[in-house]
Design the sequence.
């Protein structure tokens, strides 16, 4: 197997993909280059988001060479890199990077091709895919650990997972005893992925994924988990206040340690809020609705 990779303007993806497939590519993958999902860039920085990395796989070197010549003649692309991958390794090595991860000793997030450790009491199957949320990012793992440590709060609770991505937090909450979860997610593609994940885990009857919660819904959640960006967290304070029951618990993640003070200031009027934990640069805050 031979790979060809290079950076492109994201808007060129579909045109370049066609050329690669025409040249014999058996797969074409698009990955974000230097963009972190948690970046909150200025307009200048947003320009960087318009680039991505493309990786095409070919059965033969001549197909890869042909694709390289086609692409470099037709498009303005970054440096093209060719590699030879051993047939057995190229798919295996990708999968080998994903292992079961255990949180709070009993909650195991497990790719579908792995066997969870024998002592896993609560297993959630999540395959790495198009939606954010595999458990490997610190902001997700902080939330998963908290969920695993707070079974009594979760027992029979109504939970909202705001910014649900792959559905990992909501599905885990059901596994850990929640009665019902509503996942809220802006990204329609992520909603499709999260619904599939709910079915794979057999919890689809207890979890709903929506783009928005109707404005008339209030005092609905015992627990609201939000692993989203700092700016939406500031803006969503009124919505979180409306959705939570009195004394309901709000878990805020996706916040850099340097941003904690500003979040505390924005929430302290109507919530009792505290910093629970940090992991690297990331902070987890817990707030109780007053
Ligand atoms: C960092 S990911 C977290 C995904 C998953 N909950 C986890 O913990 O791994 C944040 C998700 O929030 C979504 N999001 C951001 N702002 C949002 C908003 N205002 N309403 C709903 N979803 C939002 C993004 O599309 C993204 O999927």
Sequence:
């Amino acid at each position: 197997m031979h790979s060809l990779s290079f950076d492109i303007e994201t808007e060129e993806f579909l045109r370049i993909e066609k050329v690669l497939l025409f040249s014999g590519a058996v797969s074409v993958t698009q990955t974000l280059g230097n963009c972190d999902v948690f970046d909150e860039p200025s307009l200048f920085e947003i320009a960087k988001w318009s680039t991505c990395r493309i990786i095409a796989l070919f059965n033969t070197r001549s197909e890869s060479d042909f694709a390289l010549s086609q692409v470099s003649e037709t498009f303005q692309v970054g440096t093209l890199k060719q590699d030879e991958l051993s047939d057995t390794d190229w798919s295996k090595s990708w999968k080998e990077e994903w292992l079961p991860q255990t949180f709070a000793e009993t909650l195991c997030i497990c790719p579908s091709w792995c066997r969870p450790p024998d002592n896993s009491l609560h297993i959630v199957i999540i395959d790495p895919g198009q939606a954010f949320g595999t458990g490997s990012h610190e902001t997700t793992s902080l939330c998963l650990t908290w969920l695993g440590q707070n079974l009594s709060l979760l027992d029979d609770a109504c939970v909202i997972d705001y910014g649900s991505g792959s559905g990992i937090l909501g599905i885990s909450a059901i596994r850990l005893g929640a009665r019902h979860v509503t996942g809220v997610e802006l990204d329609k593609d992520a909603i499709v992925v999260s619904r599939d994940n709910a079915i794979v885990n057999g919890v689809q009857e207890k979890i709903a994924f929506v783009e928005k919660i109707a404005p008339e819904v209030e005092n609905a959640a015992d627990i609201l988990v939000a692993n989203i960006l700092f700016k939406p967290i500031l803006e969503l304070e009124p919505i979180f206040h409306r959705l939570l029951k009195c004394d309901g618990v709000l878990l805020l993640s996706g916040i850099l340690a340097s941003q904690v003070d500003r979040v505390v200031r924005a929430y302290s009027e109507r919530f009792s809020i505290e910093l629970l934990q940090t992991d690297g640069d990331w902070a987890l805050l817990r707030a109780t609705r007053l």
